[in-house]
Design goal:
The chain is of the alpha+beta class. The protein has 21 helices and 29 strands.
């Protein structure tokens, strides 16, 4: 191979490999949605800028341009070699990216059900690839002429980026102003034509500049950083005494080092303000071509982050002043801290604060296309302020990673390439973690917050530590790279293992086991009645008629709405629910049946005394019950049982008649005349008088004296409907448990356990005949045996395979006398009167941690009363 060709390949190889890997792996990022490919034109545009500038930029950075043009070879041949190598490199990247996406379409499509959108060969896939090829050529040709013209890599990067962007926005506005109704096809052809002119002009100008390039060798002198005019030292031979502290000198030097970035930011600010003025002056329509570029123009500010971060250390190393700086009478830790803090702050300000500030000012002056305007919906539930903070944090993170890459690199271009590789690596690792169904027992897809919490401080500390070691290490070679590769691999391993340990609550292994129970006061031969619901109510009615009542609540649940930031914190430090209701166990009371219900924000208790009288809580607050505030609701004395219905209540009289309380869905309106307005809504259901028992919680069932079972429901008009349920005739009604999704479980009269759907067939869950209770939870089933033991099934269903799931013993105690469902978890009652909350694993999916292994003691119905 020709020596000149080998040299060109070696020059482009680092940046070319970075962009090649990025283009090959890009279609596989965020695998569940194929539309990630829509960002490939933009990503490969910046990659082509890096390669285009690198072609001559590294010659100038390494000081080899003079030797290149001094070779006894015609410049035409040197030019051809460079252009051929550059063209082949860009073409290979383009083809690899296209092939990678086609392979993803055939092999990488998600198999999970649900709607997915993909750009296939039959859609506008070729259009996206045409745009990608055009943008890559624009970037590559722009990088050639800007580098040869300016001969400074940083400035060339800026001009290569800003020049086509400014032309694109200008053409878009001209089309919107001159031809408001320009079809998209015509607009695309105009833009492609303009891109073709730019590519051809840029190529010819770069060729002209190279053929006429002149250069002279360095003749000596002091190498100095570029100076701001205001910072320039006074001319003369007189050495002025130092008047400022060393810290000020270091700060001054950092601002001098970033002057190219600051100049580029000033140009970008002028361009941004011009875009805002143009879009408001021309009053362009929402569907025009120009408004798209005007609305998303602020995204270009994010480019400031890697530019500022990549300049920090690499340029000093290229200029040869880093060694001298480390010899200054200032601790290296202080020098590194000043450089790091100033770089991150500057990158966050220019990349995040500036676009948000400019767009906010635009809103103040009446812009309706700003990201903070009402017409542009952005930010989600966090709002505009949260969105702005997220952008600033993103800019700070990009700057920090670029700063770390700069500590590894020898030049600005190499730092940008390493920064891109680092970005791509972290994104791919995060994508792999998120798309992994389970790793070390962790389900990242359902709990990504935990990985973010663990990864953020770990990455920050590790990159800061490695960056400092790189900053003070003047010897480049394999030991340096080995240390960084091992450090980054250790970060990934620590994130995975650390997340798994936290997710599984490893500290619980060092905690106490399930504590012992006290002396028994209840027995399964005459058990208490236990009732719970999804609103958090737990009710215990003892055989002698005493009632204990509580209401459980999660701190992050307010009026049924989940607040994710509160949820993440409380699941970590306080994973179990707390009591937010009254507790009462009045000795000598004689409640034969009692239930509760929430109506909007109100709370109501309705019960039947042993003398057949009907009572209702005297107010709409839970503490009324705690004060014993129950008032007589009916003059009749033949009430026998009451259960909760949706909506209202279902009642049974001693004469066998069935009644409903409330004929409308009153939970959707506020009651003002408490409780008389509810007491007047008692209505009889049908005319039959042979009803023997009722049972249920929202889903209610009634059984006649002949053993037939009926489901009772209320339609939207408030009318009760009875449906024959022959498949439930052999059930023990008091054991029926049902979830809102229709799954049910019950114990039959022969002691067998059955699961199924509300309206479908049932299958026997276990061959045993000594079951006495069941509680269906989300993704789980807990059942009570006659020997007082609790057993749990995970993800059971009524299919043949589902019933083969083996149960596990839930507790080593065998004195349990009752169980119910509350907050989609199980609450069990021990013989000593203690209530225990067993968290449901399904409740913690998508939150932060796995459910705790040990139950929480809620209270003891004999001690915790008030």
């Amino acid at each position: 191979m020709n020596a000149l060709v080998k040299k060109e390949i070696r020059l482009l190889l680092p940046s070319w490999l970075t962009v090649l890997l990025l283009g090959a792996l890009l279609p596989w990022v965020w695998k569940p949605d194929g539309r990630v490919i829509t960002v490939s034109p933009v990503v490969l545009f910046f990659g082509a800028i890096l390669i285009g500038v690198d072609s001559f930029g590294r010659e100038f950075s390494l000081g080899t341009f003079l030797w290149l043009i001094s070779q006894p070879v015609e410049r035409r041949k040197i030019w051809c070699n460079k252009i051929i190598v550059l063209a082949v490199g860009v073409t290979i990247i383009y083809i690899v990216q296209l092939v990678s996406y086609e392979l993803w379409l055939h092999w990488g499509l998600p198999t999970s059900p649900g709607p997915h959108s993909y750009i296939t060969l039959g859609d506008n896939w070729w259009s996206w690839n045409g745009e990608t090829a055009t943008l890559m050529l624009v970037a590559a040709c722009g990088g050639l002429w800007t580098t040869l013209l300016l001969r400074q890599v940083a400035a060339a990067m800026w001009i290569t980026f800003l020049a086509p962007v400014a032309l694109l926005v200008m053409i878009g506005f001209l089309l919107s102003d001159i031809f408001p109704s320009t079809p998209n096809l015509v607009a695309e052809r105009v833009l492609l034509g303009a891109a073709g002119v730019y590519i051809l002009a840029g190529f010819l100008w770069a060729r002209w500049l190279f053929y006429r390039a002149q250069d002279v060798g360095w003749s000596g002198g002091v190498i100095a950083l570029p100076e701001w005019a205001g910072f320039a030292a006074r001319a003369g031979d007189v050495i002025s005494p130092r008047k400022r502290r060393p810290i000020f000198a270091l700060l001054k030097k950092e601002f001098q080092l970033q002057q190219v970035a600051l100049t580029g930011a000033a140009g970008l600010l002028v361009l941004h303000l011009g875009v805002i003025l143009l879009r408001e002056q021309y009053k362009i329509g929402d569907d025009s071509l120009g408004v798209f570029f005007a609305t998303v123009f602020w995204v270009l500010w994010l480019v400031m982050a890697p530019l500022v971060g990549g300049m920090a250390v690499a340029e000093e190393r290229r200029l040869g002043v880093l060694e001298g700086q480390l010899c200054l009478p200032v601790p290296r830790q202080v020098q590194f801290a000043i450089k790091l803090v100033l770089t991150v702050l500057l990158g966050a300000f220019l990349g995040g604060v500036m676009p948000m500030l400019v767009e906010r000012v635009a809103v103040v002056f009446g812009s309706h296309h700003s990201i903070f305007s009402r017409e542009v919906v952005i930010g989600g539930e966090f709002g505009a302020v949260g969105f702005a903070l997220a952008i600033v944090a993103l800019a700070a993170g990009l700057t920090f990673v670029s700063f770390y890459a700069s500590t590894l690199a020898r030049s600005f271009l190499q730092a940008l390439g390493l920064a891109m590789a680092t970005y791509a690596g972290w994104v791919l690792i995060a994508t792999w973690i998120v798309n992994t169904k389970s790793f070390l027992g962790v389900v990242p897809r359902s709990s990504p917050i935990l990985q973010v919490i663990v990864a953020t401080p770990t990455i920050l500390v590790t990159l800061r530590w490695l960056g400092y070691l790189n900053f003070t290490d003047l010897q480049h070679g394999w030991p340096l790279w080995r240390r960084n590769l091992l450090g980054l691999a250790g970060v990934v391993l620590f994130i995975i293992v650390g997340s798994a340990l936290i997710y599984h609550r490893a500290w619980e292994a060092f905690g106490p086991a399930e504590p012992p129970h006290g002396a028994p006061k209840f027995a399964l031969s005459n058990p208490p009645a236990l009732q719970g619901d999804d609103s958090g109510t737990v009710l215990v009615r003892s055989p002698d008629g005493g009632v204990w009542l509580d209401s459980l609540g999660y701190p992050f649940l307010v009026e049924g709405r989940r607040y994710r930031w509160k949820e993440a914190w409380w699941v970590l430090v306080h994973p179990m629910p707390g009591s937010d209701g009254p507790r009462q166990f009045v000795a000598g009371s004689n409640w034969v049946s009692l239930t509760t219900q929430h109506i909007d924000r109100d709370w109501i208790a309705v019960g039947i005394q042993g003398n057949g009288t009907l009572w209702i809580s005297s107010g709409a607050k839970a503490n009324i019950w705690a004060e014993g505030g129950m008032v007589r609701s009916s003059d009749e004395t033949n009430w026998e049982r009451i259960v909760r219905l949706n909506p209202g209540f279902l009642l049974l009289k001693k004469d066998g008649s069935l009644w409903q309380w409330a004929t409308v869905r009153f939970e959707r309106r506020r009651q003002t005349n408490w409780p008389t307005s509810q007491a007047s809504n008692l209505q009889r259901i049908g005319t039959d008088s042979d009803w023997a028992e009722i049972f249920g919680d929202w889903s209610c069932f009634a059984r006649k004296t002949d053993g037939s079972t009926w489901a009772v429901r209320i339609d939207w008009a408030g009318k009760a409907k009875l449906e024959r349920r022959a498949n439930l005739d052999q059930t023990v009604l008091q054991t029926i448990s049902r979830m809102a999704d229709g799954r049910m479980a019950y114990v039959a009269k022969d002691g067998t356990l059955w699961v199924g759907e509300n309206t479908g067939s049932f299958r026997q869950m276990d061959k045993g005949t000594n079951w006495v209770g069941a509680a269906v939870t989300w993704k789980g089933l807990v059942a009570l045996k006659a020997d007082g033991t609790l057993w749990q099934w995970m993800n059971p269903d009524s299919t043949a395979e589902g019933t083969k799931v083996q149960p596990r013993r839930l507790s080593f105690h065998n004195d349990w006398v009752g169980l119910t469902v509350s907050r989609t978890a199980v609450v069990s009652l021990a013989a000593d009167g203690s209530l225990w909350y067993w968290p449901n694993t399904g409740l913690y999916d998508g939150v932060l941690l796995k459910a705790p292994k040990q139950p929480q003691l809620l209270a003891n119905v004999f001690r915790d009363t008030h």
